[in-house]
Amino acid sequence: MSRFECVPNFSEGRDPAKIERIAAAAREVAGVTVLDVERNADHNRCVISLVGEGDALIEAVLRMMRVATAEIDLTHHQGEHPRMGATDVVPFVPLGTSTMADAVKLAERLGERISKELGIPVYLYAAAARRPERSDLAKVREGEFEGIRDSIATDPSRAPDFGEAKVHPTAGAVAVGARPILIAYNAYLTTPDVGIAKKLAKAVRARDGGLPEVKALGFEIKERNRAQVSMNLTDYRVTPVHRALEAVRREAQRYGVAVEESEVVGLIPEDALFDAAEYYLQLHSFDRAAILERKVRAVDETQPGHESIASFATRLAARTPTPGGGAAAGVVGALAAALGEMVLAYSIDPAKPAEDLVAVSRALTEGRHRMLELADEDASSYDDVRKAKRARKERPSDPATQAGYVAAVRHAAEVPLETARRAREMASHLDAVRTRTRAALASDLVTSLAMFRAAAEGALANVAINLDDLRAAGEPTEALDAEIARLRSMDTG
Fold first, then answer.
1. Of 77, 81, 284, 411, catalytic
2. How far is 104 from 94, CA to CA, in rounded Å?
3. Average pLDDT of 65-89?
4. Stated pTM of the model
5. How far apart are CA 263 and CA 261, in angstroms?
6. Are 92 and 55 in contact (CB under 8 A)?
7. Which of 81, 84, 170, 352 has the fewest CB atoms inside 10 Å of its own CB, making it the most exposed?
8. What is the CATH number of domain 183-283?
């Protein structure tokens, strides 16, 4: 699955209601998660971090831009931060197995749609740039909204990559691009003198001979009566956060000021923080695998039933025999049990808990854990059948290999059979107390029961396939057939 971070910047940092309407437009899109919303009144700018798959992210950004275009008027906009558009910049950042080339394609697709659907000219920048000079966002934004508005029609160097050579009258233009992870990092000085902040920014930024992969500007933050050195670390592996901070501190000493505090805007990789911790704590030969939370995550991710839903869904979608329908049935059954537990958690009176409701809740909890184990057992039982088949093919006259094959197939039938049995039993227990659950949770209860039915039917279908193999091997299946019939008769509506 190709996943990306997308970090659109909007020229609004003072009206929380407007910012929420912009963010809400992204939350409506399935497959997209809003990770963070940062705003700054002096900069009059907000940064919204999203994560998701490509098509969904494009749809989310377009919806956000429609709101921003309707609500932000650059002809009345003022703020410390340079800006060229209501939606000022939209970068795509590849995550996991996604590549920068993938991110560039997303930027191009989004840019074309923005120009056609919103009438806003688009400049491709960073890795998506079609002109060398546009790899630098500062060059693209040079002159800001007013300068671009006045020159776009007459200056060939201002011609957009998508759209007509004229800005949107109130929403301006937008830069869309692809880049690696960027850390937005600000240092506040012990002075309101913005002149000093600008000198420090010039000293540390790459384009003026400072630190590589660092962009910096000096701002006056009136609400705090402080000057700020605002930095973008475009590759924290080249210039880490602590090195940028120490460079600002050294330069500040020349002017008799210090760094009062610093801040991260938006999100930051944990490794960047660990880099700073190692530096300031002077840790020698520190192994990051020794971090408690990382150890716990490593254990959780390898234990039965502890895989993330997203990871499991990715494996389920792959063209591989496992995991398959039996494993999916186990996971669905576990989710059904969890939802039933939630219904009961709200329905049981803490002051006077009914024993039978508590018993059903406990049964669902135990069943949820077992369902997740069965999901893993289903995949391993299938692998055992494949191995037994190969052995039987290699030694067809060996009674031991034939017996091993039959045992493997029987176990492969018994695993989904237990999945179906537990799904039916848990559904029956939950349905029996249906009338005593809170009415407001009726839809959750119905969903839980429906998921139990799906888990049972899917698991029983998996049993039936294995029974065919047992019959072909001359094995009796009457007892298993009878159990399937019994479980199907238990369907709970």
1. 81
2. 9
3. 96
4. 0.58
5. 7
6. no
7. 352
8. 3.30.70.670
Sequence-distant (≥ 6) Cβ neighbours of residue 107 within 8 angstroms? 90, 91, 92, 124, 128, 176, 177, 178
pLDDT tens string 106-138: 999 999 999 999 999 999 999 999 999 999 999
CA 55 – CA 106 distance, rounded (Å): 8
Is 3-178 in CATH node 3.90.550.10?
Answer: no
Residue 463 clears pLDDT 80, i.e. is over it: yes
Question: Which ranges of 72-166 does DSSP label H, i.e. alpha helix?
Answer: 100-118, 137-141, 144-151
Q: Is 420 exposed, middle or buried (0-12, 13-18, 19+ CB in 10 A)?
A: buried
The answer for residues whose C-beta is within 8 angstroms of residue 485's C-beta and 6 or more apart is none
pLDDT by residue (tens digit) across 276-289? 999 999 988 777 77
Per residue in 387-431, pLDDT tens? Answer: 888 888 888 888 888 888 888 888 888 999 999 999 999 999 999
* Euclidean distance between CA atoms 11 and 486, whole angstroms: 64
Domain edges within the chain: 3-178, 183-283, 321-489
d(CA 258, CA 245): 11
Pairing label, strands 226-233, 214-221: antiparallel
Domain range 321-489, its CATH number among 3.30.70.100, 1.10.3720.10, 3.40.50.970, 1.20.120.680 = 1.20.120.680
